[in-house]
Specification:
Blueprint: H1 8-15, E1 28-31, H2 39-43, E2 49-55, E3 72-77, H3 80-92, E4 100-105, E5 110-117, E6 127-133, E7 149-155, H4 163-179, E8 184-191, E9 196-203, H5 218-230, E10 245-246, H6 253-256, H7 263-274, H8 277-284, E11 296-299, E12 302-306, H9 307-313, H10 321-337, H11 345-348, H12 358-361, H13 372-390, H14 396-405, H15 407-416, H16 421-459, H17 465-473, H18 478-487, H19 494-501, H20 520-524, H21 533-538, H22 546-558, H23 565-603, H24 608-611, H25 616-624, H26 631-651, E13 657-658, E14 666-670, E15 675-677, E16 681-688, E17 698-701, E18 718-721, H27 729-737, E19 741-743, H28 747-754, E20 758-762, E21 767-770
Parallel strand pairs: 16-17, 17-18, 18-19
Antiparallel strand pairs: 1-4, 2-3, 2-4, 5-6, 5-8, 6-7, 7-14, 8-9, 10-12, 10-13, 11-12, 15-19, 16-20, 20-21
Helix pairs in contact: 8-16, 9-10, 14-16, 14-23, 15-16, 15-23, 16-23, 16-25
């Protein structure tokens, strides 16, 4: 006979004589009104310190957990005055006199303490989701303050090969069996003697949530595993002993299209950049020729960059093949050893260009089996390649900037032409690739070289950090022009503003993300018209005197860089500004493509929400192929199939960096990995939790502490926390009431959001976009 869910205290009481896979600490249960009588029983626990927890009838139900809503006090000295004071505080935090108070000994020598879900609490996909604090804290996970969070995800229908995690999973499985419920939230702790303790169990609240329990077939994961194994074999002209895949390296799909993009966004990104264009550009700029190799793979809908291929693509084609192979394996080893660098591979792992600190940086290769001759040959190859990029008047990036300038004419010509919608979409994409993303990729490469050069000037002490900052502030980038235009935006110049910037949208590849000119008030309803004096003062401050220019001339010459100081500074400026300009221009065509696809859907009676699931190739094929079935039927068939596949994508859990076939079924995740709550997408102004006017805003808070519960009554649009995990009290409460949130984004990202006035929080795709 199945156990029934009762209160927190009663759940533990009924489990105590039954549970075999873990222990339950001795417990005393009293009611708020009887707390004085419980003193003897508490003291009889024989523990110097106890924990006193709320056990209200308003907690831990199948309708609402009220996680963290009532008080729990840890490390209370087991003596009368301390006990009575703590008992009073806990009792006063609960609404009813009949509510219970649970008292247990404080657990000592904790090695890990955390929370485990028997399924993903947002969509009930079949994964055990464990999150624990390895610092020894008993509350860091639930109160969201832990900075040593480790997460473990395991597909429930596969064998778990980690003994410690298997022990916790065995506890959850036993609890599932006892309660006859597959949707559990379990708090656990493990001590130095490897004893496991069950601290709490409650049902997950399922109300108004998508249920994807059945949508990750074991067969699909086995096929992915087989494909991953096959991809370990090097393709033609690709070096490196193993393949690694990541969502953040190189063209960074996690940031650009999100972790779970719908089919249209994913296929567009592949079509105009990662299938072919990326490799054409690198070949043109002197790197290995990898044409025909797709950079990005879709693993059941999640976009992954082939990191080995990316590493190959940063090797100068003039480099000896033996050194090339050695170098790629060094890169792979470095990333495997330091996986936290997966979003910084070009700055912290790869040598993709020459800068003024390269000779020194290359010396670390001596510790990895490279000799001085090999290092020197690599240095000369990088120098030769870099000179071809930065050369005055003949630099490769200058040709690409000229190419981009031709894009405007093609844009206008196609837009104004009488061509049918399908033809317009086809030719916009073709011109976007030829005169947009291909030269953009080149200018972006030059922009990276420029930033590397600029950073190296600081590294060698030629520039101070302040001088570097003043140079960057002197640039006239598109983003700075947009910021200026936004600050001075009013009714008079609104039309002119939209003519210039109206094509922009928060999600560049997402048809469901409206353009500025389609949803003006969503983006600009609270824009200040006053430019701050501080910004005026910063701009235009950069200047080198004659002595500095002469020293820079000498420095460049000594390093073999074939430009003068003036030419060098001009390159830095043009390349960094050009990268933004090129992106701005090609996104005009891409944005119009999305408009026309929306129009095409409207013509066939298909909503934008549905057409977002259509592959761009389904549309492009109609330009040169006529089928017996009409386009509407073909589109609807494809959309239905892709929608079903997208459910797998939503339910699937894979690591940010996929290094081993076993990680397809089980993986650990440490550090800052944002946990998105709900499947919703919102755009709103940003507020700090201390501000008075937070209604309808995305609130930024540092920790997912239950002390911030009051925010739920303030009608906020959503919230983002710096620290905390998917199993913190705030995460659970947000999940239950359907409030969009991103928990534990990390300090670097959080500081970026602090500087923003407006954000889009897209929980379904796993993206946070800064709008203002």
């Amino acid at each position: 006979m199945a156990l029934k869910f009762l209160s927190k205290a009663q759940n533990l009481k009924q489990l105590k004589p039954l549970l075999k896979s873990a222990e339950i600490l001795p417990l005393v249960i009293t009611k708020a009104k009887d707390r004085q009588k419980a003193l003897l029983a508490i003291q009889a626990l024989g523990s110097e310190y106890v924990i006193i927890r709320s056990s209200s009838c308003n907690e831990d139900s199948q309708e609402c957990s009220n996680a963290g809503a009532f008080l729990s006090l840890a490390n209370i000295k087991n003596e009368e005055s301390s006990l009575l004071k703590a008992l009073d505080e806990v009792a006063d935090s609960m609404p009813n006199e009949e509510d219970e108070i649970l008292i247990q000994p404080m657990l000592k020598s904790i090695t890990l303490c955390g929370v485990g879900f028997s399924v993903d609490k947002e969509n009930f996909s079949p994964y055990f989701c464990l999150q624990y604090d390895k610092s020894g804290s008993s509350s860091g996970i639930t109160d969201g303050t832990s900075k040593e969070v480790v997460s473990f995800f395991h597909y429930r229908f596969a064998e778990c090969k980690n003994p410690r995690m298997q022990k916790i999973i065995a506890l959850i499985l036993e609890l599932e069996s006892l309660f006859k419920c597959n949707y559990l939230d379990v708090e656990f702790a493990m001590t130095k003697d490897s004893k496991l303790y069950c601290l709490q169990v409650r049902p997950l609240v399922m109300k108004d949530k998508i249920n994807l329990y059945e949508f990750v077939p074991l067969e699909a994961l086995k096929r992915l595993q087989k494909r991953f194994i096959n991809l370990q074999k090097p393709a033609p002209d690709v070096y490196g002993e193993r393949a690694i895949f990541g969502v953040m390296p190189d063209w960074n799909p996690a940031e650009i299209i999100g972790l779970r993009p719908k089919r249209l966004a994913l296929s567009l990104y592949k079509e105009i950049i990662t299938d072919n264009i990326w490799a054409y550009q690198r070949d043109n700029y002197g790197y290995l020729n990898l044409r025909s190799h797709p950079l990005m793979h879709s693993f059941l809908g999640i976009p992954y960059i082939d990191v080995r291929l990316s590493f190959n693509s940063f090797i100068p084609k003039s480099l000896d093949k033996k050194i090339t192979k050695k170098l790629v394996n060094y890169y792979l080893q470095s990333l495997t050893t330091s996986p936290h660098l997966h979003d910084k591979i070009e700055f912290d792992i790869v040598f993709s260009c020459y800068d003024l600190n390269t000779p020194k940086k290359l010396q670390k290769l001596l510790d990895f089996g490279f000799n001085e001759n090999e290092i020197k040959r690599l240095e000369f190859s990088l120098l030769e390649l870099t000179n071809s990029i930065i050369k005055h008047k003949k630099g490769l990036y200058l040709k690409d900037i000229k190419k981009i300038k031709r894009l405007k004419a093609y844009y206008e010509e196609i837009k104004e032409s009488p061509l049918p919608l399908i033809d317009k979409i086809y030719w916009l994409i073709e011109e976007c690739k030829r005169y947009g993303t291909l030269p953009f990729a080149g200018v972006a490469r030059a922009g990276f070289v420029a930033v590397s050069m600029l950073n190296s000037l600081v590294e060698i002490g030629f520039f101070t950090p302040a001088l570097k900052e003043s140079f960057l502030n002197s640039l006239k980038s598109v983003s700075k022009q947009l910021s200026e235009a936004t600050k001075n935006l009013n009714k008079t110049n609104k039309e002119e503003f939209l003519k210039e910037f109206g094509h922009l949208r928060a999600g560049t590849y997402n048809i469901l993300s409206p353009r500025y000119d389609e949803a003006f008030l969503d983006y600009f309803n609270d824009v200040s018209n006053v430019e701050t004096q501080k910004q005026r003062e910063i701009q235009g401050r950069f200047c080198l005197n004659d002595k500095q220019k002469k020293e820079l001339d000498t420095l460049l010459c000594e390093n073999g860089l074939e430009v003068s100081a003036e030419e060098f500074l001009k390159f830095l400026r043009l390349a960094i500004e050009g990268r933004e300009y090129a992106k701005f221009e090609f996104t005009k065509l891409l944005s119009l493509v999305l408009v026309y696809i929306g129009d095409l859907g409207q013509y066939y009676g298909i909503s934008k929400e549905d057409i977002a699931h259509l592959d761009i190739k389904n549309i492009l094929s109609l330009y040169s192929s006529l089928y017996s079935k009409n386009p509407r039927e073909r589109f609807l068939d494809e959309i239905e199939r892709h929608k079903e596949e997208y459910k797998i994508t939503q339910a699937l859990k894979l690591p940010s960096l996929l290094c081993d076939e076993e990680e397809i079924f089980s993986f650990f995740s440490g550090g800052a990995v944002a946990n998105f709550i709900t499947q919703k997408s919102i755009t709103a102004l940003v507020a700090l939790e201390k501000q008075k006017d937070i209604k309808g805003k995305i609130v930024l808070i540092y920790a997912a502490d239950p002390g911030y519960d009051y925010l739920f009554a303030k009608e906020i649009a959503g919230f983002i926390t710096c620290y905390g995990g998917a199993n913190s009290h705030m995460a659970i409460r947000a999940s239950e009431i359907g409030l969009p949130a991103a928990i534990g984004v990390g300090e670097e990202a959080f500081n970026q959001y602090l500087q923003s006035k407006k954000l889009t929080l897209d929980c379904q795709s796993g993206q946070i976009l800064c709008l203002l």
